[in-house]
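Quick start: what a row looks like.
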Amino acid sequence: MRTINLLQRMNIYQEVFLSILYRVLPIQKYLEPVYFYIYTLFGLQAIYVTALYITSWLLSGTWLSGLLAAFWYVTNRIDTTRVEFTIPLRENWALPFFAIQIAAITYFLRPNLQPLSERLTLLAIFISTFLFSLTWQFNQFMMLMQALVLFTLDSLDMLPAVKATWLYGIQMTGLLLVCILQFFNSMILGSLLISFNLSVLIARKLQKNLKTGSFLNRLGKLLLHLFAVLCLTLFLNNIIKKLLNLKSDEHIFKFLKAKFGFGATRDFDANLYLCEEAFGLLPFNTFGRLSDTLLFYAYIFVLSITVMAALAVAFHNLSDSARQQSTGQMGKCTIILKPETAYNLIHTILFGFLALSTMRMKYLWTSHMCVFASFGLCSPEIWELLLKSIHLYNPKRICIMRYSVPILILLYLCYKFWPGMMDELSELREFYDPDTVELMDWINSHTPRKAVFAGSMQLLAGVKLCTGRTLTNHPHYEDNSLRERTKAVYQIYAKRSPEDVHALLRSFGTDYVILEDSICYERRHQRGCRLRDLLDIANGHMMDGPGENDPDLKLAGHPRFCEEIKRNLPPYTAYFTRVFQNKTFHVYKLLRNKSPQEERGRVTDSWPSTKPEHAARGPGSLPHRSQQPCEYLIPRQSPSVLQADQAAPRVPSLLCARCPCQTALCQFSLL
């Protein structure tokens, strides 16, 4: 009952471009569309690794550093990329362009660039920023982290203010251009990035002489500047959202508020994120895997030295502004930590905090970790600082260390991981999910093309892809109305009456609803994080199973819908008819314009009455037309005690006193 502009709502311009390219190129006879898609994405990952290679080379001055970064990326691929097992993720399109942008920024921040080189580098930064923003819906949050990096370095005089201004402008321009291409997507207009960058530029104009004075004077000005930028950012962002009535990203801020302990929440959307492992803290075993390749040890070693150098430079820049105006003094200071090195240092620190707090974002950090660690091991400045601190400084020793250590690590990586990688490349795997395939085949062959399906977000995405049927909701969560709709559809797993569920589903034009045992009887999450628990809490109902409940939660007035509907009792058969089932899925067709009274009459009238001719047949005998499961019978075993993946046996049903058949011969399949 709603039409969605996919180019506005989703980041799929890359698929549109690829489809045009496939039709234009003369490859249709030799390559199927799916392989063209896969090979394109894998080729993009090669560009990703190449960008990491170039960034490390630019920072260290030797190609050996880039080679080590590439090797570390591949050997740590479990923690650096998800492309090998989830190919079409938006981040797999976006992160290669993000890596190109970082490489271009690294080169741009070099001092004394030629005007032509500077212009070409700015063009490369703009194009990569634009493509990164176009291909991932979370672009604004990643670039906000980048803007914070630039703000920190600019405030501490670690990079030229003019270059920081150029980068602020490119970020906003790229994002606004994407906004236009996405038909003025409201989430982009209300992004924190645009508000923050505008606030930084405004505050800089208002606060004159920000970088003059003694250490304490400058420190006070810096804190005042930070406070002004923060307040102005929140003010502008609230004004924009109120003017445009934006609610697209409010679930993200609810999630962040609850995640960092600023109050518990019963909000369904926020809890849906909080309970997902991908949005939890980074698991500790990640560091064990990174240590096996020596990456984590090298990273900590380089990070410690560069942080100490950065603190020394920051203190130097803030302590005596008058002396910093001297070219000689300034040059002497920046040799310790060059602007491009300072940028990558703050970048890796901020994205490290992001990864530690949210596991899904670790791929932004671990790939840059490869770059930063390899740069440090091959950097003459890092070895110079270390050897000088232990009084062993010698130019020859620096040369030996910066080449011998990376070569030894490369030999170790080849010896330990090369055989395993060759074995993995020789493996052939295939998709195996017969229940889902059976469901999709049934939908294609037994339902109208215009049928409307309701169910879980993930399953409906597959239904759309495999059958082309119309959906009530889908996994794109960055829209308030779709979040409300998803919560309403998910009441099929809550403790709601069949009348309420039927009314909700029909309000979205639903013809069929798909129930999944893996959700209804979920055991993957702990109590309080199962989907049914989140729905109970949001509805003010007590959760199932042993454990505590908040005192204000109440007992529900109805049993759980997804369990009770499988008993085929009259209150449910009046609204829903089961049309398909296997071990995993149950599909029910919604009945229209039937009252419970009419349905009960139909059920009773379909069975023989207790007339003498019926009784004469003897107990347990039925006419031929009545050999079907009796809808008044109660199963011996409640479905709630079955495991989600347990196939239900066909068991005799207990006779209910209300059954008009007066027979116990019927068989009833629980699931």
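That is the whole record. Confidence is low (pLDDT under 50) at residues 324-334, 595-671. Residues 395-426 form the longest helix (32 residues).
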